[in-house]
Structures are given as structure tokens and as C-alpha cells.
Write a structure and sequence with these properties.
The radius of gyration is 36 Å and the shape is rod-shaped. The protein is 85% helix and 0% strand. It is mainly alpha-helical. The chain contains five helices and no strands. The model has no long low-confidence stretch (mean pLDDT 84).
């Protein structure tokens, strides 16, 4: 769609298949520049939001004229443009590229922020689960001595009452439990 839009702006609405090689070049360069922007933004994210937005804006402003210069140079080299790249034309048309690159940068930042938020949420959930497990272990450690005290106390009572068989069964069950 960027190629069609570019063709509409640069050549009017007269679009033919003769323009296809230039448009394929445009799409290829656009994809390469978009991936490069994404990598730059990925490395720069993780901090405060406003500096990330400022960096994204700087990348967009630097990318648009560079992209147009590469595109015009490539068109000239493959014989699709009769004249070499001209700085005033590069700057004029690069203003057009600010919008699509800004949209791409904004979507990339949003996706990266979303990924960071989900990772943070996952870490928080894991931390809550670990805290819950630690609480359960602590309760078990508290219950075990209390259980052992009650069992031994009951066994001692059985022995004092001379109920030796019941006491013996309880000791055997306790031994099997442990």
C-alpha cells in the first residue's frame, strides 16, 4: 500500500505495470528500513516512556530522508529515473515518508511496551505463586512439630493407662507415617 500511495503522490494516479520494478524496490527498501528501525527501537526500550518516544521521533526524522535518498539512488542506478538524486527533491518527498515511518515506530513501541507489560505480569504472578508456596511450607513446618507432640503425648497416655497393644499400634502407625 505504501508503494501505491507513493506512486499516487509521485506520479499522479496513472499507475501501470511499468512502474512495478520501482515499486518492488520501494517495498524491499521499506521492509529493510522498517526492520532496522524495529531493531533500534527494541534495543532502546525498557526505560521511561518519554525518552523512548523522543528517540523514536529522532529515528523517524533521520530515516525518512535516508530512505528517500536510497530509493532515488537505486531508481537512478537501475535506469528508472533519468536524473540523479537531488537534495531538494529528497527533502520534499521525505516529508511524505514521515507519516508511515512514524506509524510504524509507534506500533513497534506499543508492541514492545505490551511485551514488557506481559513479561512483568508473568514475573509478578510467579512471585505471588512462590510466596504462596513459601507460606504453605512454613505452615507445614509449624504443623509437623505440633502433630508429633500430640501423637507422642497420646502414646504416653496409652502406656500410662496400660493399654500397651493400642500404644504399640500407634507407635507402628507413626513409624509407617514417617
Amino acid at each position: 500500500s505504501l508503494a501505491t500511495t507513493y506512486a499516487s503522490v509521485a506520479r499522479g494516479y496513472d499507475y501501470t505495470l511499468v512502474n512495478l520494478p520501482g515499486d518492488l524496490l520501494l517495498i524491499t527498501l521499506g521492509a529493510l528500513f522498517s526492520v532496522a528501525m524495529q531493531q533500534l527501537l527494541r534495543r532502546a526500550t525498557g526505560g521511561s516512556f518519554l525518552p523512548e518516544v523522543a528517540l523514536a521521533a529522532a529515528i523517524v526524522v533521520a530515516t525518512a530522508p535516508l530512505f528517500e535518498a536510497c530509493f532515488q539512488s537505486a531508481l537512478y542506478l537501475i535506469g528508472r529515473s533519468p536524473q540523479p538524486p537531488q537534495p531538494e527533491r529528497i527533502l520534499r518527498i521525505s516529508l511524505f515518508w514521515l507519516a508511515p515511518f512514524a506509524i510504524w515506530a509507534g506500533m513497534t513501541l506499543a508492541r514492545l511496551r505490551d511485551r514488557e507489560a506481559r513479561a512483568s505480569e508473568r514475573r509478578a504472578t510467579e512471585a505471588r505463586e512462590q510466596a504462596h508456596d513459601a507460606q504453605l511450607r512454613a505452615l507445614r513446618y509449624q504443623v509437623n512439630p505440633h502433630f508429633l507432640y500430640n501423637t507422642l503425648n497420646s502414646t504416653a497416655s496409652l502406656i500410662l493407662d496400660r493399654r500397651n497393644e493400642a500404644a504399640e499400634r500407634m507407635v507402628l502407625r507413626l513409624s509407617n507415617f514417617f
